[in-house]
From TrEMBL, chain A:
Gene3D superfamilies registered for this protein in UniProt: Molybdopterin biosynthesis MoaE subunit
InterPro entries, alphabetized: MoaE_sf, Mopterin_biosynth_MoaE
Pfam assignment, any one: MoaE
Protein name: Molybdopterin synthase catalytic subunit
Organism: Novosphingobium barchaimii LL02
Family indicated by similarity: Belongs to the MoaE family.
Principal EC category: transferase
Listed pathway(s): Cofactor biosynthesis; molybdopterin biosynthesis
Enzyme nomenclature, EC number: 2.8.1.12
Oligomer and partners: Heterotetramer of 2 MoaD subunits and 2 MoaE subunits. Also stable as homodimer. The enzyme changes between these two forms during catalysis.
A molecular function GO annotation: molybdopterin synthase activity
First and last residue of the signal peptide: none
Keyword Cell division in record: no
Reactions the enzyme catalyzes: 2 [molybdopterin-synthase sulfur-carrier protein]-C-terminal-Gly-aminoethanethioate + cyclic pyranopterin phosphate + H2O = molybdopterin + 2 [molybdopterin-synthase sulfur-carrier protein]-C-terminal Gly-Gly + 2 H(+)
Automatic annotation (TrEMBL), chain B:
Organism annotation: Novosphingobium barchaimii LL02
Superkingdom as given in the UniProt entry: Bacteria
Name of this protein: Molybdopterin converting factor, small subunit
Length: 147, 82
């Protein structure tokens, strides 16, 4: 079971994880990653833009690649689009497997690829001014680990 | 004919709009397409780092593109998700 969603309004990560886990009683290990808008640095808001024809289909394609690479009982990928405020959740990935190693690796791989290969453009508002965020070199190094 | 242009990320800011319709007389190749943009924007979309989607599908070689009536062209700068 893969559950892949692109959301334009806020979500409750705890409730999503509860429902995901409840549906997978046979999974021995569930690893999750939650990314949220960090507070501080004068950041007033974060905006994620996407392009409908590409963004969700590519997220689904990524989920399919993860499922081929690791033996999972379930995979959850939720990514926000739109304007977010500090402490709001941006992304939730959870991987459920019989054994923890597959679950850790699958969630790690999914996050690295969401960060550097998914069709999202991000800008932040500081002091009333929006500025686009460029991809970081670290993101490309992270994804290079899987090649 | 009518062609829809879509600018994502910082290209939207450079263009000053996210969408635009152009009405060329005939199908366009890449040089013909960028002629419809301002020189600054033409330079930006010409960068190797900017990818192009034609009708929602990523184009392998944007410089070899042909744009026809009713097409939607999206200009995609480097992504920054998560």
């Amino acid at each position: 079971m893969s559950d892949v969603r692109l959301l334009t309004s806020s979500f409750d990560p705890a409730e999503e994880l509860r429902a995901f886990t409840a549906a997978l009683p046979m999974a021995g290990g569930i690893v999750s990653f939650l990314g949220q808008v960090r507070e501080g640095g004068g950041i007033e808001a974060l905006e994620l833009r996407h392009y409908d024809p590409l963004t969700l289909p590519a997220m689904e394609g990524l989920a399919a690649r993860v499922r081929v690479r690791w033996q999972l009982d379930g995979l959850l990928v939720i990514h926000r689009s739109g304007v977010l405020v500090p402490r709001e959740p941006i992304v939730l990935v959870a991987a459920a497997a019989r054994h923890r190693r597959d679950a850790f690796a699958a969630a790690d791989f999914a996050m690295d690829h969401l960060k550097s290969e998914s069709w999202f453009w991000k800008r932040e508002k500081v002091g009333g001014e929006w500025r686009w965020i460029e991809p970081r070199a670290q993101d490309f190094e992270d994804i290079g680990r899987w090649r | 004919m009518k062609v829809k242009l879509v600018f994502l990320g910082r290209l939207e800011e450079q263009a000053g709009y996210g969408f635009a319709d152009i009405s060329p007389d005939s199908p366009l190749d890449w040089p013909g397409l960028v002629e419809h943009l301002g020189s600054e924007l033409a330079g930006a979309v010409g960068s190797e780092k900017v990818k192009v989607a034609l009708n929602g599908a990523l184009v392998a070689d944007k410089y070899a593109i042909t744009v026809n009536d009713g097409d939607e062209i999206a200009f995609l700068p480097p992504v920054s998700g998560g």
